[in-house]
């Protein structure tokens, strides 16, 4: 957990400093570039839902308010769609390019996908992943899976869950 706490501070402060410098909030500064389409009222397109359970009644799926604690920084403040995340993955699989535009250099992208540290594993995670090897790159987890290298990252926030990943050699 100390590993994540150190990086959390870096990722929380960097976009806030960037947003402040250009007169935007951290979320606006990040979303302006790549992510977060908004509807005609300025609301994020994705709507969070929750299950409401009442004894003796069927479960109900209900829309809920967006989580808006921007002090968490990027991980807890970016809303996007599956289509946009697919575009973002294409950047990672296409040497940093999307539709002819270079977002990150191939050298920097390769560095992002290289292991930076070995992560400790408990028995549950080792059994779930069927491996003893679990690595952290720059913002991604990496481990072998059925003869392939899998790179992934996930997250959860009220009303949303995500697991996104790719197999680098299967472009």
Task: Kindly list the characteristics that best describe this protein.
disordered N terminus; alpha+beta; 5-stranded antiparallel sheet; 6 helices; 34% helix; 171 residues; two-stranded antiparallel sheet
What would your notes on this structure say?
With 171 residues, this protein is of the alpha+beta class. Helices cover 34% and strands 22% of the residues. It is built from 6 helices and 9 strands, in the order ααββααββαβαββββ. It has helices spanning 2-21, 26-33, 74-77, 82-93, 106-112, 123-129, and strands at residues 49-52, 60-63, 97-98, 101-102, 117-118, 135-136, 141-145, 148-157, 160-166. A 5-stranded antiparallel beta sheet has the order 5-6-7-8-9, with helices on one face. A two-stranded antiparallel ribbon has the order 1-2. Strand 3 (97-98) and strand 4 form a beta hairpin. The longest helix has 20 residues, at 2-21. The protein starts with a helix and ends in a 5-residue tail after the last strand. Mean pLDDT is 75; it is low at 1-23 and 29-37.
